[in-house]
């Protein structure tokens, strides 16, 4: 008989990350209803403090409605560059402390401590890591320790803010049992509504439904939900590598000095890999532009930026880098654009200066590209001259 080794997976989540960073910059915000997002009525809420949440405010809510629910709220437009800086700081602290971790988003981490209980005690090690993050960053952070990623994440969400939870080995199913099915990762609004119509209100009831029935009802997702309802999750902690990248290059059929053509090509290339970022639900924190002259001399220039996947922001950075690179006024043979420092995430609610209209525009553009191909729609600036 092969025994499954006991895993020890800690989930760390920075409490109201954007708000907490703002509070570090201005201590007067502490204890107040704070909203981060677009300042106009057409903007959306990117994040809010727990005090604001008590008024019913939540992320992605229209700012006009949020103001109506809490007129006394303090509104900050948000500074993604500053938030990215603190995200990298916390990442460095964790990387220097643990042997294996996964950066699940800009403010969320999984740490694999399997086997370390023999030497340090996983619970003590996790608690000490929390203290270290708070000491070195000044940011509040929650954690939960469990036998897998699923349960540790749910436990963190249940204990926030300032969570310090531990779900003992073998207690995963009983911990999940009394919780609402809506709290199960992977259960969206439509699935939750369907289950509630069936009378399935808790994870305990979900776990008692035959797996064949859930498979017939929800397909592969139903089988996955059944395993999760049993407290089972074999998903590994994926090691975080800062150097993962998405890139594209173009070698011109004829070397060119036509700036209009070069700029248009940069726009098309940036749109192409920015769409790939959004398709993979990733954000980039570093942009590199590569240029090869006709004599084969190759130069590159990069810039660390606030995490984003928005075309209009990335195109601006790419254009700046190209203008700084192109100094010789020689014929150009090749152009390249590369995004690195990739993290999981969704840029839509991070567009602090953007309106609901712009968020919806990106959704529409991506939908068209997904259905008909990425070249079907693009910016006019990306069109070839005289085309």
UniProtKB/TrEMBL annotation:
It catalyses: DNA(n) + a 2'-deoxyribonucleoside 5'-triphosphate = DNA(n+1) + diphosphate. Its main location: cytoplasm. This is DNA polymerase IV. Monomer. The active site is at residue 108. Belongs to the DNA polymerase type-Y family. The keyword Nucleotidyltransferase applies. InterPro entries: DNA/RNA_pol_sf, DNA_pol_Y-fam_lit_finger_sf, DNA_pol_Y-fam_little_finger, DNA_polymerase-Y, DNApol_IV, IMS_HHH_1, Rev_trsase/Diguanyl_cyclase, UmuC. It is found in: Cytoplasm. Keywords: Cytoplasm, DNA damage, DNA repair, DNA replication, DNA-binding, DNA-directed DNA polymerase, Magnesium, Metal-binding, Mutator protein, Nucleotidyltransferase, Transferase. The gene is dinB. Its EC number is 2.7.7.7. Poorly processive, error-prone DNA polymerase involved in untargeted mutagenesis. Copies undamaged DNA at stalled replication forks, which arise in vivo from mismatched or misaligned primer ends. These misaligned primers can be extended by PolIV. Exhibits no 3'-5' exonuclease (proofreading) activity. May be involved in translesional synthesis, in conjunction with the beta clamp from PolIII. PANTHER family: DNA POLYMERASE KAPPA, DNA REPAIR POLYMERASE UMUC / TRANSFERASE FAMILY MEMBER. Its cofactor is Mg(2+). One of its GO terms (biological process) is DNA-templated DNA replication. Mg(2+) binds at residues 13, 107. It comes from Paraflavitalea soli.
């Amino acid at each position: 008989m092969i025994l499954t080794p006991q895993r020890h997976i800690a989930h760390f989540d920075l409490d109201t990350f954007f708000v907490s960073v703002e509070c570090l910059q201005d201590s007067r915000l502490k204890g107040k209803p704070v909203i981060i997002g677009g300042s106009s009525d057409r903007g959306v809420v990117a994040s809010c403090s727990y005090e604001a949440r008590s008024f019913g405010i939540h992320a992605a809510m229209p700012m006009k409605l949020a103001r109506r629910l809490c007129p006394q709220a303090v509104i900050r437009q948000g500074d993604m560059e500053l938030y990215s800086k603190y995200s990298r700081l916390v990442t460095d602290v964790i990387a220097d402390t643990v042997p294996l971790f996964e950066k699940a988003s800009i403010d969320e981490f999984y740490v694999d401590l399997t086997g370390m209980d023999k030497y340090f005690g996983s619970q003590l090690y996790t608690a000490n890591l929390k203290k270290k993050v708070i000491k070195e960053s000044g940011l509040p952070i929650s954690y939960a320790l469990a036998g897998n990623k699923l349960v540790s994440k749910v436990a963190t969400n249940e204990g926030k803010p300032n969570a310090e939870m531990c779900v003992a080995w073998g207690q995963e199913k009983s911990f999940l049992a009394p919780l609402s099915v809506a709290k199960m990762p992977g259960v969206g609004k439509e699935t939750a509504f369907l289950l509630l119509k069936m009378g399935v209100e808790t994870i305990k009831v979900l776990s008692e439904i035959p797996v064949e029935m859930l498979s017939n009802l929800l397909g592969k997702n139903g089988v996955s939900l059944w395993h999760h309802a049993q407290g089972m999750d074999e998903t590994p902690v994926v090691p975080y590598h800062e150097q993962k990248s998405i890139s594209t290059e173009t070698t011109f059929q004829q070397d060119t000095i036509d700036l209009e053509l070069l700029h248009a090509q940069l726009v098309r290339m940036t749109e192409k890999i920015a769409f790939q970022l959004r398709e993979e639900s990733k954000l980039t924190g570093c942009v590199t532009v590569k240029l090869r002259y006709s004599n084969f001399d190759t130069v590159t220039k990069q810039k660390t930026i606030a995490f984003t996947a928005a075309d209009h922001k990335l195109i601006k950075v790419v254009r700046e880098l190209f203008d700084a690179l192109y100094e010789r006024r020689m014929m150009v043979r090749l152009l390249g654009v590369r995004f690195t420092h990739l993290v999981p995430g969704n840029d839509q609610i991070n567009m602090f200066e953007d309106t609901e209209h712009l968020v919806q525009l990106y959704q529409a553009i991506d939908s068209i590209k997904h259905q008909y191909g990425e070249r079907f729609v693009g910016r006019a600036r990306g069109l070839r001259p005289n085309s």
